[in-house]
């Protein structure tokens, strides 16, 4: 792998504008490289004619175009490397100071944690254990938060070390290229000596920073192991190594993915051919076993769930391809699935579903040699639904992507009640997914009603299970919208203001969507509700579309260099955003039918069940592009603030200082009459096994002379975050000049 590609792969996405612009520097050397290669060709051509070789070489180097071009590029090289040097140095100093501050806070938190536990245990020892259980539960919750904070701090140090190491290697590499390919007679010696001396000094400093980072990593690791994994340090080290390892794609996974996706495509082709031949007709009322009469909604819901899973996989591929850091917003740690792993899982589900669908279709249509067997064929959709739900709610976390399910449960808990305690925008993001899955959830409700009726009456239900005749069909859309309104009220509570804020407008637009869903359900009661629904639905769709563009995606940003968009774009070309913006307009119009389950009845459509499937498919497509841009917008927000990890939370507050001041710095286990066999005090034993003087011994707490005399230039950092477009235009300009330059020399 070439160094330029390796350098790009090692970049921290949120800091990408602060790295050495290796691509521009290499481009600025390209004219010199071209001339040097041309001279080498001359040398090999005139191997026995040295005099002629010298003449040709002199003519080439005395060419005015060659001289002006190379001098201009070499001078530009020196200017670029000097600007990048100041940018890198400023960021390294600023971030180093930031890490040192966080290190101090983490150490203070460890001390406060010990003090608080000692205080709780001392109160119990003295006989005051009235609220001991409540205090211990509160302490363990804070302890868990602090552990996650230390993990995030550890990741931040790793990223900082990676940033320094990459730039150090990049500077060395580009200087070697400069020395190898630049032509001595065209160099500006005085300017070059000043710039390159600064570069060499910076390289010497950068060489020392990783050692400091390694020391800090070791101290942080010991803090974590001694205070949280004292009884099982192996598990702690395993978790830390997971953060350092990069996931790789195994050939076995690729083979399985290719095998199952190929099989699924064959089955899908077979289903299409069956439909062309006139089978599995949704409007065939003659055949009592026709799959599209009663069983189609059961299969349709499964199909839409699988399509949603495919779209999630496509989103993940897009984020990975364009280096969009989705892990911060979604709250992933080292437990996350690679793109190929997700595609492999969805290909399993697709193959299983299509195989079952084909088998049922052949039996339901009585295609020889298959015959419909009522005893087991009718239960195929139920079995598939059970398998899908079992995968989602499988109780064990060691198999079947257990960490992924744990993450899902936490998100669901946060969306339902966790936001009252601490609101996170990803909880609302979770509810958005449920709104888009309204049709498959209604089909799940239909499936439950269908089989319940069969088991209770022994007869196939007529129309009582369709969502248009059931309150649950409307509630599936109303409940997520209602919960979203509560989320926005929670956000307003946290901010301390509601009126004339984004939370207020979010609240009212979600309330409007809720009323659209309610009116669609009431449309069965009286035709007047259908008339009222039309303006409500039209206004709701247009307002939601405008909100998507302006607020959720940050389009139409003031002062943007890209028309109708914003300055920072995570994806390569503005056309991607224009296409998504236009597509979203039409998809928002179909979205209103997703939240209005009964309105399709009044559209005089012959293939109503297939029409619902198409609406569901379009809504899944809208969710695909919405997720695609939403996560990219969050990434851009993090990029602008140089945020690479989740916010560090410091849960222990020294509010009751008077309660702690009489407690000695070190309490032994014997004072509290505890022993290591006491399983109830396992957490306490872990804490007291910690090296109590670890923090005092750490040389990282002493004054640091690494950056003595240097101060970060914050203006340089701000300018660096905005100069990416300029540097890209410079690269394009130099490449075009090189093209013309080569054409003239030929």
UniProtKB/TrEMBL annotation:
The topology of this chain with respect to the membrane is: Multi-pass membrane protein
Where is each EXS domain found?
A: 464-662
The reply on keyword Cell division is no
InterPro entries xref list: EXS_C, SPX_dom
The parts of the chain that form a coiled coil are 36-63, 96-123, 717-744
- GO cellular component labels: Golgi apparatus; plasma membrane
An example Gene Ontology biological process: cellular response to phosphate starvation
SPX domain sequence ranges: 1-192
The molecular function terms in GO held by this entry are:
inositol hexakisphosphate binding
Membrane spanning segments where?
253-276, 302-322, 342-362, 382-400, 504-522, 528-547, 575-593, 599-618
Which keywords has UniProt assigned to this entry? Coiled coil, Membrane, Transmembrane, Transmembrane helix
Which family, according to UniProt? Belongs to the SYG1 (TC 2.A.94) family.
- Which protein is depicted? EXS family protein
């Amino acid at each position: 792998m070439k160094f330029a590609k390796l350098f790009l792969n090692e970049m921290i996405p949120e800091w990408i504008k602060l790295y050495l612009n290796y691509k521009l520097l290499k481009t600025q050397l390209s004219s010199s490289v071209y001339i040097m290669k041309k001279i080498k060709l001359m040398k090999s051509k005139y191997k026995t004619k040295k005099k002629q070789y010298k003449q040709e070489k002199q003519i080439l180097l005395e060419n005015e175009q060659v001289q002006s071009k190379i001098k201009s590029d070499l001078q530009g090289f020196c200017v670029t490397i000097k600007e990048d040097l100041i940018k890198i140095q400023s960021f390294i100093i600023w971030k180093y100071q930031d890490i040192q501050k966080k290190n101090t806070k983490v150490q203070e938190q460890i001390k406060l944690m010990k003090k608080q536990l000692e205080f709780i245990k001392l109160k119990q020892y003295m006989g005051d254990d009235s609220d001991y259980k409540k205090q211990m539960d509160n302490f363990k919750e804070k302890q868990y938060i602090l552990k996650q904070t230390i993990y995030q701090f550890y990741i931040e140090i790793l990223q900082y070390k990676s940033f320094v190491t990459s730039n150090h290697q990049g500077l060395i590499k580009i200087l070697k290229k400069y020395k190898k390919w630049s032509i001595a007679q065209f160099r500006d010696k005085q300017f070059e000596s000043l710039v390159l001396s600064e570069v060499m000094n910076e390289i010497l400093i950068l060489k020392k920073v990783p050692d400091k980072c390694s020391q800090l990593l070791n101290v942080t690791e010991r803090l974590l192991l001694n205070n949280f994994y004292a009884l099982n340090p192996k598990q702690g080290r395993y978790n830390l190594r997971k953060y350092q390892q990069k996931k790789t794609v195994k050939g076995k996974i690729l083979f399985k993915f290719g095998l199952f996706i190929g099989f699924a495509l064959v089955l899908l082709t077979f289903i299409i051919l069956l439909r062309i031949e006139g089978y599995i007709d949704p409007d065939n009322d003659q055949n009592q076993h026709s799959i599209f009469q009663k069983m189609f909604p059961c299969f349709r819901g499964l199909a839409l769930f699988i399509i949603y899973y495919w779209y999630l996989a496509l989103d993940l591929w897009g984020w990975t391809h364009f280096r969009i850091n989705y892990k911060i917003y979604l709250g992933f740690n080292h437990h996350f699935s690679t793109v190929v792993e997700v595609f492999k899982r969805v290909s399993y589900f697709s193959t299983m579903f299509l195989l079952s669908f084909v088998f049922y279709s052949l039996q339901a249509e009585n295609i020889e040699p298959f015959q419909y067997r009522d005893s087991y064929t009718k239960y195929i959709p139920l079995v598939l639904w059970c398998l899908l739900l079992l995968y989602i709610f499988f109780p064990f976390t060691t198999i079947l992507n257990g960490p992924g399910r744990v993450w899902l449960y936490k998100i669901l808990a946060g969306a339902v009640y966790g936001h009252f305690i601490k609101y996170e925008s990803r909880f609302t993001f979770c509810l958005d997914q449920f709104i888009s899955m309204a049709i498959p959830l209604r089909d799940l409700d239909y499936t439950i009603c269908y089989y319940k009726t069969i088991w209770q009456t022994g007869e196939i239900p007529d129309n009582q299970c369709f969502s248009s005749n059931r309150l649950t069909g409307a509630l599936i859309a109303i409940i997520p919208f209602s919960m979203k309104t509560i989320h926005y009220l929670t956000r307003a509570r946290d901010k301390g203001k509601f009126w004339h804020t984004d939370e207020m407008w979010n609240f009212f637009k979600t309330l409007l969507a809720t009323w659209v869903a309610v009116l669609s359900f009431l449309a069965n009661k009286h035709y007047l509700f259908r008339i009222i629904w039309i303006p409500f639905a039209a206004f709701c769709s247009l307002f939601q579309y405008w909100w998507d563009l302006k607020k959720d995606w940050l389009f139409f940003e003031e002062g943007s260099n890209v028309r109708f968009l914003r300055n920072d774009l995570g994806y390569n070309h503005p056309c991607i955003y224009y296409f998504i913006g236009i597509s979203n307009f039409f998809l928002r119009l179909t979205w209103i039918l997703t939240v209005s389950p009964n309105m399709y009845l009044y559209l005089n459509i012959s293939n109503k069940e297939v029409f619902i499937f198409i609406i569901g498919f379009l809504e899944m497509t809208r969710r695909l592009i919405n997720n695609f841009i939403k996560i990219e917008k969050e990434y851009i927000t993090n990029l602008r603030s140089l945020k690479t990890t989740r916010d560090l939370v410091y849960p222990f507050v020294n509010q009751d200082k008077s309660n702690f001041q009489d407690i000695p710095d070190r309490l032994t286990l014997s004072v509290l009459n505890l022993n290591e066999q006491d399983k109830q005090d396992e957490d306490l034993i872990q804490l007291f096994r910690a090296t109590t003087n670890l923090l005092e011994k750490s040389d990282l707490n002493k004054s640091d002379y690494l950056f003595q005399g240097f101060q970060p230039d914050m203006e340089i950092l701000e300018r660096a975050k905005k100069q990416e477009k300029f540097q890209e235009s410079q690269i394009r300009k130099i490449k075009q000049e090189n093209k013309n330059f080569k054409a003239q020399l030929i």
